[in-house]
Amino acid sequence: MNPHQLVFWILSVIAIGGALGVILSRNPVASVLFLIVTFFAVSGHYILLNAQFLAIVNIIVYAGAIMVLFLYVIMLMNLNGDVEPQKSKLLQFAGIISGGILFLVLLAAFKTTQLSTTPINASTSIGLISELGQVLFTRFVFPFEISSILFLSAMVGAVVIGKKD
Amino acid sequence: MILIITASIIGVVLLFASFLLKHTSSLLHLVTVLFAALFGVAIWEALQPTAILTQSFYLDAIRVDRFTNQFNVLITGCLFLYILLMKKHIAAVGKYKAEYFALIAFIMVGIFMLSSFNSLLVMFLGIEIVSIPQYILAGSDKENLKSTEASLKYFLMGAFSTGFLLMGITLLYGATGNFMVSEFNFLQATSINPIALGGVLLLIVAFGFKVSAAPMHLWTPDVYDGTPTPFTAFMATIVKVAAFVGFMRLFQTSFTAISSSWSLVLAVVIALTLFVGNITAVFQQSVKRMLAYSSIAQAGFMLFAIISLNAIGRQGMLVYTVAYSVASICFFAILIKMKDYTYDGFNGLAKKQPFIAALATIYMLSLAGIPLTGGFMAKYYMLKAVLFEGSYMWLAIFALLMAAVSVYYYFKVIIAMYFKEGEAAMIDSFTKEEKLYLTIGALALLVVGIFPSLLTGTI
Fold this sequence. Notes:
Strand content of chain A: under 5%
CATH topology of the largest domain in chain A: Four Helix Bundle (Hemerythrin (Met), subunit A)
Distance between the termini of chain B: 20 Å
CATH architecture of the largest domain in chain A: Up-down Bundle
Helix content of chain B: over 70%
Low-confidence stretches of chain A: none
Oligomer: heterodimer
CATH class of the largest domain in chain A: Mainly Alpha
Number of helices of chain B: 19
């Protein structure tokens, strides 16, 4: 096992453990903290894939901004107890069955897939900001520009919903 | 292509208008002019000599073909009718009048993207641009608790379905290695990649959410009922049809080769949608809620265009766009004037307003699919499309049965108007212009019902 693989396995264990922690912990604040752990582990994976920019953005935007907002809301609303109403047993059972079936289908799909053994020939600079900028302003210029409409409408919505009449 | 830019500019202009224009009446004039201009641009684009060819823009991120142009003309036409009929009511919903119209313009940007995408990224952005302003419009009546509930419910459900959509796109990208819809070549592979099939399955679920197909329809009645009525009329018609066009575009261009793997799933979804929509609609007391369930039932018919994968299905989609949108928009325009949204609220409308009652009858007949109306032709094309393929006879027969059930609840409105005694109390009377627009809508339905080749002849 080379060091690269070792790091991959350690990060994977942290990521999956963190994700399980998010859904298993009863305390919402603990859930959010577990989610931050997961994001850091995923950022580690990005670095392993040579996508440094994505890794940094993932930490700044998700672990930094959004999670702090989550924590803030949870603490402001004083949700840090076990206040979630209990679902009925039937509903829980139905949830387990349907979720399990979806998991089985996806697992079966992955199991029968032949993974390609030929490595992808990508240049080493593929995850750097300059490369990303090049792609964003050439191949993906339309999706990139049009997403401004999405953000503009979301901002308008925040004002319309949030402003006091 | 110019249409996308025009719609974006209209949205921005309206945002400026929100603080530059002080009077509501001048805002409403501006709105009328702007959306008429949008309609004009759509027609102009469709009349270009190149409009019959397939053109690609922005390194093939967008591909405009003949169907796109025709659909864009029809949908902007429906939007214009909607604006003419509803602008007064939209302005009365809340304080942020211009913003509501701006959000509608932004939704149109998303709709034009859905009718012309060639990249999964553009499709995803289109769906999000259509969805996010809708969450806001659903919650625009902030005083009303039901509106807020509708907004939150729609947002949570929509975010959940977006997760499915993204996962599906991810799996497809992982399996095929590209985003371009027209380049997925499943036929060349010696064996179909199972991961791609998982992606297709998740895409069916995600689109099922957006078009409210059963069993992903549970948000629909509450959201449509709680949303302020002018916006329900928009969400249930124009936006829904656009989601269908995106659905159809993706599945017809990319997944035809592997249709044997997913069409049975879709057939079960269609049967469930028709059953749940029609049977539940029968038991509704409120006409607005009945229309919500009827939109689920009509979605079942529109799904035929996706499962049939042929040109007749595409023609049927165009006819359905007009027949369903126009009838629903016009009927919502009548419903919004009623004081009481239950069936009893319509009692005796024929005595009080014979002309309006006659128009409402035409809309109801069209939704039920009675011959000579557009609704009949729409259903006829959909059934023809699926019978042409030949493998889903049972589904067509089931759909006919369910269409017969739907006659019951549509006719309940007509019976209330004509054969029951009552007051039919109204909040507001109809102006001359509104009557004119309603008549134009009814005439459009009749014309489509008698000469459907006007819409379909050129495909």
